Amino acid sequence: MECQAVNVRTSLGTITVINVYVPPTHDAVPPPFDDLFQQNNTVIVGDMNARNRLWESNTNDARGRALEKAITAHGYVVLNTGVK
Length: 84
Known about the structure:
- The protein is an alpha+beta fold.
- The chain has one domain (2-73).
- It contains 1 helix and 3 strands.
- The protein has one helix at residues 62-73, and strands at residues 2-10, 13-21, 42-47.
């Protein structure tokens, strides 16, 4: 998993934007998505090569389920509608 993070200062406080890329390999163990969701005021974007109906994929895969679990556990929401 590759990540780049940028802190953006605004008049209302700092927002962290994390860009994530996970190569489309078929690893038996999903990446540590939980580590991405440890900060408040964070937007996470990128290509995680994860499939889940939560973001309008046709199927769920292990990586998508792991990402959904991290999103739900930390109270995040998905803004991606799956539109290409």
